[in-house]
Amino acid sequence: MAEQFPGPVLDLLDAAGDRTVFEHAGEEVSGARLLGMVRRAVGGLGKHGVGPGDGVAMLLGVGPGAFAAILAAHVLGARVVGVRPGLTEAQREHLLRDVAVRVTDRPEGPGTHGTPGNHGAGLVLALDELLSAPDDGVRPRVRARPGDVARLLHTSGSTGVPKACAQTYAAMTAGWAHRPEAWPPAVRALAGRMDRFLVFGTLASQVMMEYGLLALAAGGTLVTADPPVLPDALVRYRATASVITVARLTKLVAAQRASPVDLGSLRALMVSGSPLEPGRLREAAEVLGPVVFHGYGQTETGMISMATPEEPAGSLGVPPVDLEIRDPSGLPVPPGTDGELFVRTPAQGCGYWREPALSAEVFTGGWVRTRDLGRLDASGRLWLTGRVRDVIIVNANVYYAGPVERLLAGHPSVAEAYVVAVPDDSTGEAVHAFVVPAAGRAPDLGELRALVTAELGGACAPTRLTLIDEVPLTAAGKPDKRRLAAGG
After folding, report:
1. Where does the AMP-dependent synthetase/ligase domain start and stop, copy by copy (predicted)?
2. Do 225 and 341 fall within a single domain?
3. Which of 4, 165, 220, 353 registers the highest number of CB atoms within 10 A of its CB?
4. pLDDT per position as a tens digit, 251-261
């Protein structure tokens, strides 16, 4: 039986030896040195009693120390919780409620390191403290157990608090990123372009960590960018690959048209998080060349399919996982017919943390209900055609319309509120609010934005406001948001 994750990743670092696997803040870090950092972090966490099943929150960036701390927590079999920047206090508190230890490389208030932290986080440890632990030079024993939850992957928090998708150690062990023998053809093509993978933001990001592991397994180097300004960072760090959202890709293409720079080293941009319109893809290919890989996946499933630059515009390639297109009654439909996507992937989640009812709705009979619409053509290629869910995708994060509408409708100046997604060059999509004013009141966009920002975060706040006398209705008497969007 193969060793549990992250054992195979430790083997990758061991095999790398003196080869540079990280470039960070002007410093090169070899595989051997990074493995030493992992050993130190294991010792530091172990000293504080961290073991299988314990919750450990990671408030970390993308440096080698962050990578080592996350890997160390997995070595010990902990339940790793990534905490990204930009959450509201209520959302942050919700994420930290079940953790015993918080590891951070972010500035903290006085007296927090090594002491009980705020927001139910328990013990707060500075990353530098973990990495200063002794290194015994012995390969750490992986204590992870297959059925334990390895990490909680959080959604965008658009329902007020983020949902946490639980992924077991067995699922992480079965994942494709760190296993070259499991790479599907599109991933293998991508791996050959990952010589210098530009990373930014946080390794708590599911996408950033997955592609980071792929780069290491492909013999590449992770190169950190701070700030990740494009195209400057691509040029400065001679990046061959990076992750990009649709909105940032649009900006990069526009910048290259207006004032071209030398992107000769660039070989792959992995677009993820939201659909890429065929017109945008063709424009990117004209300006940047054949470098765009369009990935499709979900927090609950990991990667479902990936289109290489050679795929027809709009296609997501042939899915390398089990996938069924089903009609509303749950029966599979023939090729060429639209329906809802149900998938099974080796690394899919096992449910939502502490959400049994929602888990039963989405994780059903071994399948994951994506609530996305699409079809398979005669060649087996996947084409997305819409979303079952009423959502807005801002900077590749999914936000539900319902909570925003309920919040707006509770404002004294608002009688009814409806929100739709509108294209936005900066964020991909943005919230457009259609509001029926309360009698004698005049809703103000600034007030409504402030309200939503305080409760749900700035990404959910409406960027446009249209006052309407009444909402248009469908033939069934329901609000017709398609007509709103078309007329707005």
Report:
1. 17-353
2. yes
3. 165
4. 899 999 999 99
CA atoms in the 13 A half-sphere facing the CB of 301: 27
222 shares its domain with 358 = yes
Question: Which residue's structure tokens are 């080698």?
Answer: 64
Judge whether 436 and 471 are in contact, CB under 8 Å.
yes
Same domain, 443 and 358: no
Beta-strand relationship, 391-394 and 397-400: antiparallel
Q: What is the pTM of this model?
A: 0.83
Using the structure block, give the residue that is written with the tokens 């701390």.
Answer: 69
CA angle centred on 56, ends 359 and 297, rounded to 5°:
45
Range of the domain at 455: 391-487
CA distance 451 to 165: 28
Question: Does the residue 147 lie in any domain?
Answer: yes
Q: Six-digit token pair at 388?
A: 């079952």
Asked if residue 192 and residue 63 are part of one domain, the reply reads no
Residues of the chain with pLDDT under 70: 1, 107-121, 156-161, 386-389, 474-478, 488
Q: Is-cis flag, bond preceding 227, omega within 30?
A: yes
Candidates 273, 263, 217; CA nearest to 241 is 263
